[in-house]
Amino acid sequence: MIQNKPSISLITAEQVDEDTLEIPLGWIPKIRAALYLKNLYHKQTNGSQPNTTLISKLLYPETLWGKNQAKITYKILCYNDDSSVFEREYPPAPVTSGLREKMRDSTYAMYRRAIYNLGVLHEIPVAAPTINALQLAEHFTPDLSTTGRFRTLPSDVVFKSLQHAIEFHLDHGQDLTKAFCRIALECKKRNISPASLTHEEVQAIVGEKLRKFGITQLSMAIRSMNSGRYHSGVKGTKDGYFSNLRSNCGLYELIAVYTGAVQLTVGVLMARRISELHMLKAEDCLDETEQWLLFMNAKSTHHLFGLRRKEARPIEPIAADMIKTLIRMQKILVRIGYLSNLKTLFAVPDFKGAKKLSDSSAYLYNRNLDLFCDYFEMPLNAEGQRYYLRQHQLRRFFAMLFFYCGSFAKLDTLQWMMGHADPKHIYRYITESMDGAVLAGAKAHFAAERLIEGDDEDFQDLAQLLKARYGARDFTTVDAHDLEDQIQELVLEGWVEIEPEFFTDHQGKQFKVVARLKRVPEAA
């Protein structure tokens, strides 16, 4: 069976890097084959993965809930019939602080509630746990896992990526989206799919400027030939693929990189959740003035019968301009008949060359960000892992932008973006629009970076408190995540507060971020 379906035996480097199942790799193809023969796989966007609900029905047939609950999917057991399944150039840097080895408190609460609700069986003549047992279960508290805290990205990584995103938009955004519209028009006229276009036809359609930029083909995930025949598994080696990506060979990959650039910019400046962003609709995500972003709040269903509340937030002009570029592209595609209606804002062309625009999803949203990070070669950490940006990490960076604009650092682009408004007004907007936990994390991260860089003029009291509490002597050698955790602990315990201090001088309205003690250290 494995010989007839060789993709089942293919284990990628990413799968090995992220493997937590601890099964010998030599067993993996046989386990996959057994699952396949039992029809326990189902198709997903990025390949075939075990259907954990079906597996649960086999393993837990006598349970009330366990047989219907989806379980963790281990990537090592997934396979893809496309022989070129790599999606990232390097292993990803961890996005949360540590692995969960125990049940989460929210999961335990669900199980406890299900057991306690068995008490209703006492109302009818059916065997049920005793009242005493139910009460003991209700009040029992095991040793549970705490929710993993999202790791903070180094500020310079986010700031540099934001610079790349804005510059890529200004230099190439219009050219790339217009080129795709010309591809779509040609396919509409000839009633063919984009995959049918030869490399020579693609180069002629995109024009001289993009040919000089490096574009040689529609997508590196397909091979266009004069026959128009589609071939799978043609991305080649990982080194070759990412070298070609940065050489600008594939039009569709560049459009995904550009879409990732828009996602990143909007994500940093708007500080919204990923579900709120990937579900934005091209037809109504901006108001009539094009100065407000309209979105469905992901956590506003209380008293709305499960429906989300539509909200509006002011949006920076550069982010609005990026959004309008994507909207303009979709409107052209609708006008020429390539699309029947507008899609989600971050919809992208199908890499396999199908005649469609794929609606955004959490998977595609993150894939675009991954391509962006590999295209611009985001830095690696000490373990050789790349910082692949995720929206839940970016949410606090609107506040970080604000803090750094008041630090008198050489960040001309950021000062230009934020310097046109009263800093008090901006900070009021930040406090009103961001979750308290997100803002607290941004403050702690900013203070930690300042201490590590030796710029502690405004954090001397905090530095002394950290030295007294944790024995820290040289902050330049302290792990940034550990120091951030220590600062957040002091803030939560009420020892210190980190706030901007506003003032006016000969240059106008200014501010700096300072740490103030709220309790005298002797009381510690």
UniProtKB/TrEMBL annotation:
Gene3D superfamilies: Intergrase catalytic core. GO terms for biological process: DNA integration; DNA recombination. SUPFAM superfamilies: DNA breaking-rejoining enzymes. It comes from the Bacteria. One of its GO terms (molecular function) is DNA binding. It comes from Pseudomonas amygdali pv. ulmi. Keywords: DNA recombination. Transmembrane segments: none annotated. This is Site-specific recombinase, phage integrase family domain protein. InterPro entries: DNA_brk_join_enz, Integrase-like_cat_sf.
